[in-house]
Amino acid sequence: MRATRNVQFYIYISYFFTALILVFGIAMGTMQFSRMSTIILAQANSSYALIGNEVASNVKDIYEPVKNQTEMLAQSHPVSGKDLNERLAHVNYMAKAIISVKSATSAYVGFANGEFFLLRQYAKSNGSKEVFKAPEKTDWIVQSTSMDTGKLTEHIVYLDDRLNEINRQQIPLRNYDPRQRGWYETAMKNPEQAHVSEPYYFFTTRQIGITYAQKIVGADAVVGIDIEMPTIHETIRNSHVTPSTRIALIDSKGQLLAWQNGNQPAYKPQIVTKLDGTQGMPTLAEQNAPVLNSIRELDSSKDSSQTLDVIEKTWATYQGKIQVPGGHDLRILIASPHEELLADIIRMRKQTSILFLVMLAVSVGITIYFSRLASNPLKQLNDEASKIARFDFKSPINIQSRIKEIADLSNSMRGMKSTIRSFLDIASSLASETNYDKLLARVLKEMSEITGAKSGILYLYQPQDKSMHTVQTYVDHLVLETGTQSISMADENHPVILACKSRSSICQLQAADLARYFSSLPATDHTTTLIAIPLKDRNNTLVGAIALVIDDADIDPGRQAMAEAVSGAAAIAIENQRLIQEQKALLEAFIQLIASAIDAKSPYTGGHCQRVPLLTKLLAQAACKETEGTFASFQLSDEEWEELHIAAWLHDCGKVTTPEYIVDKATKLETLYDRIHEIRMRFEVLKRDAHIDYWQAVAKDSAGNDAAELKKKLDDSLAQLDSDFAFIAECNEGGEFMASDKIARIQDIAGRHWLRTLSDRIGISHDEKERKNRTTEPSLPVQEQLLSDKVEHIFARSARDTIAPDNPWGFKVKVPEHLYNRGEVYNLSVARGTLSEEERYKINEHMIQTIMMLEKLPFPRHLAKVPEIAGGHHEKMDGTGYPKRLNAEEMSVPARMMAIADIFEALTAADRPYKKGKTLSEAVKIMSFMKKDQHIDGELFALFLKSGVYLEYGKTFMNPEQIDEFDIHAYV
Predict the structure, then answer these.
(1) What digits encode the pLDDT tens for the residues 119-177?
(2) Is residue 275 domain-shared with residue 128, that is, in the same domain?
(3) What is the pTM of this model?
(4) Phi/psi at 77 (5° precision)
(5) Is the CB of residue 833 less than 8 Å from the CB of residue 863?
(6) Which structural domain range is residue 483 located in?
(7) What is the distance between the alpha carbons of residues 387 and 217, in angstroms, rounded to a whole number?
(8) Which of 555, 592, 732, 949 has the fewest CB atoms within 10 Å, counting from its CB?
(9) How far apart are the first and last CA of the chain?
């Protein structure tokens, strides 16, 4: 399954609001741009119409006055007379007409006889200054062709602003006949009104223009007024909508009267030569004006505005008709690119877009910031949830948010964390409490505080009599021990018994009911609420119950649920501690059973395993009380006291493997019995042999010559035998030291023989027979030594009884070659005491067995040092002890304490059959030598004396006569 990629909440919100803002901004921008574009295009169309109207008005302002003046002149005979002079007299009529029409440049009359009279305003005509080299102050120019001298002559007359003649010149006659001009022909053909001509080159100034002409009423002459094309062009020069706006004014033939091609230089009207050789005005179709030509090709029957796509641009276009008085209609064409029409809005859109992007960035930042503000509490709550999942309850949840849902969630999680922490703390404290009585008190107190109870009782179920026994009472924040009270499970009306059949029970108690059911609780004069909660373990087995009395009428459901949840942990803790107590009691009984069995095994060590733990604890307590010196910081926890207790009781548990006859061996020849009796019998045999030899000698000496000598010899032999046996018996008892002369005498005595006539290989055990069969049985009768070390006296050591140098326990002991050597001479020659090397090793081996046995036991962690403490009391501070040859630094303080306790108890014990108990002074003196030889810890020995532990122990376990006075300062 494909994993879902999760997004952080603040990023999700940022994405959402950014997208929302972006979509909203784009939608609003698009809508606004579209609407503004429509408005601007509509305004452009309005502008086009205004331009069209303005141009039409301007054209009319140009054409209409000229037409009117032309008609007026045609009615008023402006020029009369037959020659130039007469006609100059009436020039003022024509001057008034030109002055009154702004667009008029000249007025003239063409006569039927070919004469021609023209008045030109010098300043108005664009071409006048180039053609006429007029004198100064010339304001008017007259051009005249007339019959002044009987022949046709042509003159130019220069007039000032008052129409006074300045100068007159006759010029060569030009080939100009007004009758051949289009304006003349049109006017003669249609004399009723003024007509306007097509644009043409003016003959004199070579300027392009048009002419309004009309036949003069009552005369064969035509009057005309000229308008130059630049004047018409002025009508569109300032009609820009945008810098690239194209405007063209064309006539009905498509001729270009005026044209503004964007920012290009102004169009100068001129006559061009056509492809067919004719001359005329340029047409729009011949110009590089694709947009305007596209408009020209559209329907021209009415004014219209359209959008066209031309030369990779979109254009807003307009075309309109302009009525020309006395002529054909003109057309105005306008086109502006959208990009310029909408330049401001596009620029505004760019600015708006930039502003929008800036605002978007700021909004995104603000959104992220506020998203983080909104999401940070969620992230913190998630972190807190993770901490809860990791059971991290170190700090409370203190997360603030303006968002109600998050604040509510924070409060809920704070309560949840507090509840779980409280539950775990309570469960942990209950689980960690190892003192049974303290645990019961804590359970009752915690449950009372959870529910807010003012008092309560803890009951424990006793399956033996099927009843609930009160063990603790809670009153006013104190837990008290209660007397033995019980509730029978058969009392089904009791609230506690009712609760044991369910999860919990809540009821209202009247004052009388409280006193009747819970007499150990304080009485009250009002109704209270009782909540009874059964305590059941994980197997739903009833452990006990708790009855809690609450003053409030109602209990908080949360507190009740918490109490019910804690009750399970409490029940398990109580049951666990009860099991632990029972297991500890069983272990204690088993330990004391082993110790008692060891003491009971041998009458010589009776009580030793019981007294050493007590003496060790007295010394440990003295060390814990020290406030200065070496043991100022020495303290033992409850677990360590338990560890010391068990180690002390089991310090000699290895003695169960030591053969009893070795432990109790009182003489050198003793095994399961004392073999001195065998040797006595052999001496008896030798004495009988001496008597027999005497009587046989007496019988042979019938004369009785040697009777006295024989008697003396017999008496000497018997006396020697008695003496030798007495010596052997004395050696058998053992002592502090066996001198070499005694060993030599034993060996000398052993050289004597006695006669054995019976087989010693019948009627014996299989093992003994195996040992004897190591040698060949001699023929009977056989002479045997009085004392002998035979092959069968050697017990071979098996691999199981061997301690390797690299053993896993770290034992460093010298293991004798043989398991046992029961040779008679060998044992009688023991230098000190009664034990041979093999037997002494067997005695000492009880420490090895103690350590091996204890290390095989699966002690819990807090009892892990039991083998080390129990197995170290025969070690010496100088490293010569056994079984590990540890020195003082390698031994724990409790182990060194036990060494002192073991020695002191052994020295002072009065229940040893083989010795008297030492007095206090004797025991301390011996131990002082041991301290000097670094066999025991000197500082602990000093504490043993200074603290008075020796005396406290002596008064309890020693006989009064053993307790003597001495100066401890001699040993401290």
Answers:
(1) 998 877 776 667 788 888 899 999 888 887 778 888 899 999 888 989 988 888 888 88
(2) yes
(3) 0.55
(4) 45, 70
(5) no
(6) 433-573
(7) 117
(8) 592
(9) 82
